[in-house]
Amino acid sequence: VSGRVRHAVFLASGAALGLLLLWAVSGLSPFGQYPGPYGTILNRIAVPQRHVTDVVAAVTFDYRGFDTLGEEFILFVAVSGTALLLRTERGETDVEPQHAEDVDAEAQVGDALHALCYVLVAPIFLLGIYVVTHGHLTPGGGFQGGTILASALVMLYLGGEFASLKRLASSERTEMIDAVGAGGYVVVGLAGLIATGAFLQNIVPLGPIGELYSAGTIPYINLTVGLEVGGGLLLILSEFLRQTLQVRASAQAKHDQSSSSARENAPKQDGD
Amino acid sequence: MIPLLQAAALVFVACGGLAVVVTREPRRQMVVVSFYGLLLAILFFVFQAPDVALSVIVIGTVALPLMIVLALTKVREQASLREQREGHQ
Description:
The structure holds 2 protein chains of 2 kinds. By secondary structure, chain A is mainly alpha-helical. Chain A contains 11 helices and 2 strands. Chain A has a two-stranded antiparallel sheet with strand order 1-2. In chain B, 91% of the residues lie in helices and 0% in strands. The model of chain B has no long low-confidence stretch (mean pLDDT 86).
């Protein structure tokens, strides 16, 4: 297909799509005017019914808690698949750095950045814990807090402390945190099923509105989601880092060896 | 005031999305994508979704660019390895 034909096809289909979009947009209600009933109803009933002050949490972890369970398992499967793809394959070797200096030399991070990242790890981690545990009171929750928790540990890598990150977030540990988080959600659901006959039914006292211990099972589900998201994200990122910093094609290693030995010995065999 | 902010955020996000597509060099594109994540965070914030803004800050500006740069490094490494092998034969 020549360039001109391609442009003609693009212009025609682009114009058609644009017209369809305009048609669709013209049928929308005016900007800021919400016509559906659910938002208004939820704003009115969620606080007295579920004792939350963050209505979004009541929707995601209670009214449609089963959907969120599905979403959580989408993430779980995606993380598992990514970890599987990032494994050490045949023909590759996992080069374990012998000394901490090897990794540090590779990272080449300035003192200022190193210090800044070190100082930031603990406050970011604390913020993550806060966001996870206060999901039913203020905007946030397990998903948001989990990503913040994972990013706190990624700060270690940005500060040139890959060895520390690896020690703290070994694959075994992050895998387990990921799995415990995903399973914990199901356990909370099953507890409701056993106690009341309905999956994910609230079984914990609702508590006073606006207090940390309130909103029934929502904070516990938030906790499991926080573990799952934090562990999963950390697992993916550390596997990516391991692939880049440690895993070498063993062909290269062999090649380097053979070429160096060839240089040392008589350069007779030249077969690869 | 708030509709004005919302309109501005929408325009910024539209421009940012265009900038991501127009940038062709992957490494530069990664930097642009992380700025785009920040623009998205502002958009979500002015549309009263601060929780989503929080997660897009982490995912869009840290996790995604980091994954891209790591994947690029791995791809480059493989390419240079292949070149080396072909150069020797």
